[in-house]
Amino acid sequence: MSDDDGDAVEPVLRVEGLETHYDSTEGFLDRLLGRSRRVRAVDGVDFDLRAGETLGVVGESGCGKTTLARSVLGLVEPTAGSVYHRGEDLTALSSAELRDRRKDLQYVFQDPLSSLNPRLTAGGIVGEPLDVHGLAAGAERDERVRELLETVGLKPNHAARYPHEFSGGQRQRLGIARALAVDPEVIVCDEPVSALDASVQAQILNLLSDLQAEFGLAYVFIAHDLRVIEHVSDRVAVMYLGEFVERGPTETVFEPPYHPYTEALLSAIPEPDPLWEGDGIRLTGTVPSPVDPPSGCRFHTRCPRLVPSAEYDLSGETWRSLTDLKLRAREADGVTSLTAARTSREGDGSPVDGGALDPADAIDPAGPTGPTEASRETFDALVREEFGLPDPLSDPDAEAAVAEAIDALRDDRIGEAAELLDAAFVSPCERRHPTEYDVGADHGIACLRYDGEFDEEAGTFADGSEPAGSAE
């Protein structure tokens, strides 16, 4: 999907194929033996930023938002890709040339206190960019500093104070004043209100909006709070594990259709109603490591709308449960980690009342047993209870594969069980890395459910073939 909306206006900032990978190899021996570990923090990101607009970048902590922000401005050197400002590739500039270009590109940090020099007064902090770029000196510099402080809602006499003498909101205003000092046209705001109280957040957001209107600024606004993103952004990019999974105008991203990850984030937004109980989407598992991201769609390990294989007649909910079992078996170091319920030595070890076990009810004078000591029927029930699997599955072939894997688990053959599940249950989402499909004007979603081969009624790919899209 192109970010261009059909007009001929050149974007003020264009990012193409940006990658930033880190070497996280630990220890001399690993380096000596060539066992390198690369953290793929940003892994192929593209976007345009137009003059005077705000692009919101949202995602969970650890998805690569801050690394993206710092890579765009050259604070972190990208591994690959290009960042164009007014048509000039910033990644090809020398250090001196890049420093000069930073008059046009500025950064507002998440933690205002740690980003301000504690040994400088507010006047020194705001005036430092003027000194570095030779923009003002003497009385002119002092007047410019006072003017900047007033512009962000501080008083001229605050110039003599040190950072620790300001409140959190005032320190962030000071950081914004410093960014404004060189009259930039782009400011990257890295979660600028996440460390502030709600009332102060609103004040800072309103200040940024007023400054944008007054000076024609363009913002890249990084946040994990969708409410903030919706309030400030013209367009939104949703980021997951180093990649954009959805991009588009704010109003379209916040209305269906949307990526399953976006849908989960939106469902977590609380309502201002004391009686609201919420119907948020629960994401299973944890965010995978960027050192070894999953194959195919990177969200498939947690996606509640995983596309089932056409090989079986199974619901999406059951397929999600099977995938959870498969992933847990792949990573488990013991059978007990696969069964949260507990068995009892009472009778034949069957679950209390023939159903799910209450841990309190499972304790008897003889003490609890391990799951592998229970009967085959009990162990089977425990595994299905843990993962929400029907007994039996609706598809006979799928049921046979699960039963064989559960037998292997009961015999403590975890590796064999993982291999059986890996071979039997493979979603198209695991095989193919989705392209960004156009779903509307300037709106793209990287999800196989928007591929033309997806059968919405059947909930899978109609002929069971590999879906269209780029291979991993």
From TrEMBL:
Keywords: ATP-binding, Nucleotide-binding, Transport
Gene3D superfamilies tied to this protein: P-loop containing nucleotide triphosphate hydrolases
Statement: the UniProt record of this protein carries the keyword Oxidoreductase: no
Spans annotated as Disordered: 333-376
BP GO annotations: transmembrane transport
Domain ABC transporter: 13-266
InterPro entries: AAA+_ATPase, ABC_transp_ATP-bind, ABC_transporter-like_ATP-bd, ABC_transporter-like_CS, Oligopep_ABC_C, P-loop_NTPase
Molecular-function GO term, any one: ATP binding
Family in the record: Belongs to the ABC transporter superfamily.
Listed name of the protein: ABC transporter ATP-binding protein
Native species: Halorubrum rubrum
